[in-house]
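Our consortium's second objective concerns turning raw sequence data into structural hypotheses that experimental partners can test. To show how far this objective has progressed, the report includes one record in full. It was chosen at random from the queue rather than selected for favorable results. The single chain below, 413 residues long, was entered without modification.
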Amino acid sequence: MSKLALFGGAKTLGDGRDLKSSWPQKGMDEALCEYTGAKYARCVSSGTAALISGLFAAGCGPGDEVLTVAYTWVATVAAILRVNAVPIFVDIDPQTFCMDAEDARRKITPQTKAILPVDFYGHPAPIPELMELAEQHGIVVIEDACQASTGEINGVKLGNIAHFTAFSWSGKPIYSNTGGGAYLTNDRSLYERALLAGQHPTVIQGVATDPEVLKYASMGGTGDNMRAVGAGSAMEQLLDADVRTNARIRNCAYLTGKLSQLPGITPPYVRPGYKHVYHYYTCQWDADYWGISRDRFCEALNAEGVYAVAYINDANYQFTPESKKLQAGGPIHLRTIFQERNLYGRGCPFQCPHVKNPPVYRKGDLPVSEEMCEQEFSLAQGHLSPPCDEQDMQLMIDAITKVLDNIDELKEE
């Protein structure tokens, strides 16, 4: 029998075992540590800022290669370019849409400084395999978990697995209507070096203990790009994040059960031991079977009132009324900057003198990524989460079935 705290025994609550109701008083950073199990967390202005912080902490810079995926939202790759490093693209697993660990293994070189996988659509990347690979080569895994902040692998929360993890609050599983994000790590050195990516000098001096970090604190920046935003409303979401996530998973399981009975549509795959949190519910469309393109199918489904989008090619123009479709869509390695290999002028960072083997980005380099861009269609998190329930999921199934029942009309136009 344990000794009562009144008489000097250990407290039942305390030392990381507090009730969630204590989180708002502690602040978002500490709450994230308790939620994920990570030792250190820091709220910043966005998920992109968190990624930049991680790359900076890992020492990525001119001439360094960072393995990542071209099948992602632009911010992932933009963060690599922001620190003047060179993206080296790895293909994806056609089932999970996440980084193929074996392709990553093939593409590591002496210039590789970090691996930046993406937990795309809410399905965690193969972080354990990538961590093992990184340990073999002495490099850092910086996980883009922006779409999967409530996800898990083998019962362990994301944020507590990779060397460094980025979260985002912008329309994600943990949401804030003013945006924002955070980075998490179990490595105190990475945590402190990340502060130098843009935190205000006074913040760095108040947090850092490493003399090698403190001596650069005066040049830490104004903090304009790294200040914590959205933490208040994100905290409200964090308090019941798992409840909402688990409800969304149940809704998506219902969709999968129904869609699995339909030909020509492949519902999402979930790797055993992985918690897919469904930022998007992403299926594959078989255009050869149905005789119409994925885009035509999405057009018909949208007309029925169901928001369905080809995420990689078209998601941008759905975000605001002013936006238009991408002029050059597809995986990121096929977009203009990577074809021209010139971002900052004079070929930098792709062909600057620090780069030993300037990359060339070609069509056909990433066959799975390129194929998936033409097959995937996604239903958005907002329609998958509470208060939506099984009845709402059935309405979406009814709309899909209606389109399929009238597929010949779509062929005739």
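The partners drew two points from this record. The longest strand covers residues 280-285. Residues 241-259 form the longest helix (19 residues). Both points have been shared with the crystallography group to help prioritize constructs.
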